[in-house]
C-alpha cells in the first residue's frame, strides 16, 4: 500500500510538472533517489541532523510546552469549562515547531527507515489531531481559551491574519509537514488533518460575500497550498494559493514589512521582512509554474535581480537589519549588525532553486551554492546542537550559538531543510541530466522514462576533483550537463555587487573514460553521447584562494577585501590569531598557504597569509607589527567560544581600525546585577556613529521592563574619577529598548558602601550620542552605573566611558 501511494504521488507530480505550459519545465530528482555517502562533508551534516538536531527539536517541543498546547486545546474541546492562559504566553506560531520537525523527520525516514522514529512521529500526530475543532480549524493559540486567546490572535478567526495571528502561516507549515509525512510513510492521518484545516481556510477566507478578504501576514501558505494541490489534485487549493497572491496589496493592511505595499506583479524591489519575502517569491514561482502566469515570473525576475545586484551578502545571506528582520536599502549591507536570518537563507535557496527549474540558468545555482555553503549552514553547529538566528559577518564576541530560542523558527527550519538537501543535486529535462551540486552520492534517475544510475565521488568543497560514474543505464543517448560554478568563471555573483580583484583566471579539465574532452565554454559542460555502464567522467576545477572587493556603493565594505576558496567564504577568528584581528591590515599582494585543522571534530582547510597589525602605544604613537593571519571557513566560526570574527578585512589604510590604547574602563573588571548579553561591549572603546548605527556591539536588559538595573567597573587600583559618558542603545520603533527613564552614578567608599556621586551636573538620555555627566572628583576602587528602565520597555547601552 505504501509503495502504491508513493507511486501515485510521484505520478501526480510528474504529470503536473512535466507540462511546460503549466508546470516547471525542468524536473527535480527527488532526494529519496540520492543517497549521500556517509562520512563526507554533507554525509556528516545529514548524520548530525538525524542523530542530534531532529531528536533535540522533538525534545524541545516536549520541554517548551509545544505538545502541551495541543493537549490543552483538546481538553477545552472536550470540556469547554476548562480554559488555559495563552494571552501573553509564547507565540501564536508555536504550533509550527512540531510541524516543521515532523517534516524533517519525514525526510529522514525516507532516507533512513526507522520504526522507532516513525512510531514517535505517529504519537505526535495523534496529539495534534485531538486539538482540531469539529469543522477542521486547528489553532491552539485560540482553541485553548476562545474568550481570551493569544494577544496576537484577535477576538475571532482571521481578523488579525494580516497582522500577527499567523493562522495561515501555521496552516502552511502543517501542510508542508503533512505532505512530506504522507510521502514518507503512506499514512494519511496528518494529511487528512491538514486538508480539513485547508478546507476551512478555503471556505472562510476569500473575496466573496461572507468571507474574510485577508492575505497572510507571514507568507508560506502560498507554496504550501500549491504543494497540497500537487499531492491531492484538488483545484481549490491551487485557486486559494493564487487568491492569496493576487489580493496582496489590495486588502486592509498595505506595508512593505509584509510585502503588501503593492500587488505582487507590480513589485520590483526586495523589501520588508526577508523571510516573509523569500517565502512569497517561492510561492509565486510555484503558482506561476502551475498556472502559466507570466506576470508572476516577470515580477520575480525583477526582484531577484534587485537582490543579487544590491542586497545580497557575500555569504548568500539576505536581510540587512534587525529592524523588522528586513532587507535594507540598496547597497545597505552592514557586517556586525547584519541580520541574515537562517530562515531567510533557507528561503533564498528555495527561490533560486525554483528559478532554476523555471529558466534552467546556472546563475541561480551559483547563488544557491553560495548561500548553502556559507550563510545557511553557518546557522547550525557542526554537531547539530547549536544554532544562530542571525548570521553576522563580524563579531566582537557578542554572538554565540544557542541550544534553542524562545522564537524557535530557525532551529526547526534547519530540521526540515538539511535532510532535504540531496534533492538539490540533480535535475532532468527530457534527455538532459543536470549535475548542479558536487557531493559524493549514489543516485537513480529517470531519463526519457528509462532508468539511469549515477555515482559521484569528490572531496568538494576542499578540492575541485569530481568523478561521475555511470553505474547503470537503459537510456541510450542523453546529455550530461555539469554546472561550471560561477566562482570558477570569475563571477562572484551574477552582478557587479562583488568582483574578484586578484587577476587570476581559473580553468578546468574534463575527460570521458580517460580521454580529454573539450566542451564549449558555457555555463554547463555538456557531454551528449550514448552512455553505457562503466563510463566515467572526471572533472577538475582549479581551486585557489581569491580576493574579493564589494561594489564601492557598499559603504560598509569600502577599502576591505574578503577571501574565498571554491564555494567557501573565509573569515578570521580569535582562536587562530593571537592578536586583535580588528587591527589587522591585509597586504596589497597577499599570498596564501593552505593548511589543515579540526573544528568540532571535523576537518577544515585553513588559509594563512602575511598581515600587519596597527596599534596605538601608550604614548599615542601608531605602531605596526608583522603577523601571520589564519582564516577558516565562515560556516565553522563560533565553535570554540565567543570572540572576535571578521569576514571583510581592511586592505586600504582608510579602512583600518588601529587598536586603541588602554583606558581605565577597558582595563576594569565588569560586573552586573543580572545576566546580560555582550557584557564586554560596554568597555570595548567602540562608540556608534549615530543613534541608528548597529555596526558596534551593545548590551541590554531585554526583556526586563520597569526595573532598576546596574553595571559596575572594578578598577585595577584606586583611581580618581570625575566624569562618565554613556552611549544609550535605543532601537525604536521596532525593537524593545528605549533610553532609560533615569540613571545615576554611584561610587564605593572605603567601607564598601555604595554612595551617589556629588555635584552631578545632569544625566542626559539622548539616543546613540555622548551623554556625559560631570561630578565632584572622587577616589574609588569601583564605580556603578544604575539604570531605571521605562515602564514598557527595556534599556541598553553601547559604551560606558570613565574619566
Automatic annotation (TrEMBL):
Classification via InterPro entries: 6-hairpin_glycosidase_sf, Beta-AFase-like, Beta-AFase-like_GH127_C, Beta-AFase-like_GH127_cat, Beta-AFase-like_GH127_middle, Galactose-bd-like_sf
Stretches assigned to the Non-reducing end beta-L-arabinofuranosidase-like GH127 C-terminal domain: 545-650
Single GO BP term: carbohydrate metabolic process
Pfam hit, one: Beta-AFase-like_GH127_cat
Signal peptide (from-to): 1-22
Limits of the Non-reducing end beta-L-arabinofuranosidase-like GH127 catalytic domain: 33-422
Protein name: F5/8 type C domain-containing protein
Assigned keywords, A-Z: Signal
Keyword Signal: yes
Species of origin: Prevotella communis
Stretches assigned to the Non-reducing end beta-L-arabinofuranosidase-like GH127 middle domain: 433-543
